[in-house]
Write a structure and sequence with these properties.
8 strands; TIM Barrel; single chain; alpha/beta; binds SN-glycerol-3-phosphate
Length: 214
């Protein structure tokens, strides 16, 4: 399973890249707004340090506007993936981008039926938001299970990108179900490292090492 980081913060991205486990980056308008920088500045910074797929979202909601913004974003760097919302215009734009050879990430997916639409339109990635489903008492991971099964049934090439991830068990469950990608906030990536027995074990090794004759 590929690991993407879900942030527009360049320092957090650099840290994950330095660990050697960052396969790509996903952003959205809210994450860009948090940086306090212009979208152009954020794009430039991220493109400089990331070689894997970088999802950059359009903010237009009509087909023509999405096409104009998406084509401009795709020109920035070869690895840019245009993120479009799962609306009628978004699905139409996804098909058009696919036909033009532009990669897409269809976002704001909350059902397996919506994921089918994205696959039919030739999306490169589908982003089901599992945390937001959990927030409204729906089992987010259930749709990952459904989508992975449905895509396999018909050999769709759209990759399942698990988004709106809130804790390490979301990552583990996504991997267990065979999702292609999990995009996670840096805090979740950080938590994946943690285990008290690792800390205790390391402290004991170092303590015992002190008694080894030098
Ligand atoms: O990038 C989309 C998604 O990961 C957002 O997550 O935590 O705002 O629901 P969240």
């Amino acid at each position: 399973m590929k690991f993407f980081v879900d942030t527009a913060d360049i320092n957090q991205i650099k840290e994950a890249v330095a660990w050697g486990i960052c396969d790509g980056v996903t952003t959205n308008p809210s994450l860009v707004a948090k940086t306090g920088k212009s979208f152009d500045a954020v794009i430039e910074e991220i493109c400089e340090v990331v070689d894997g797929p970088i999802s950059l979202e359009v903010t237009a909601t009509d087909f023509d506007g999405m096409m104009e913004q998406g084509r401009a974003l795709a020109k920035t760097k070869d690895n840019v993936v245009v993120k479009v919302p799962l609306t009628k215009d978004g699905i139409r734009a996804t098909r058009a981008f696919t036909d033009e050879g532009i990669k897409t990430n269809v976002t704001l997916c909350f059902s397996a039926g919506q994921a089918l639409l994205a696959a039919k339109a030739g999306a490169s990635y589908i982003s089901p938001f599992i945390g937001r489903l959990d927030d409204v008492s729906n089992e987010g991971m259930a749709i990952i299970d459904d989508i992975v099964t449905i895509y396999r049934n018909y050999e769709f090439t759209t990759e399942v990108l698990v988004a709106s991830v809130r804790h390490p068990m979301h990552v583990v469950e996504a991997a267990r179900l065979g999702a292609d990608v999990c995009t996670m906030p840096p805090a979740v990536l950080d938590k994946l490292f943690k285990h008290p027995l690792t800390d205790i074990g390391l402290a004991r090794f170092l303590k015992d090492w002190e008694s080894v004759p030098k």
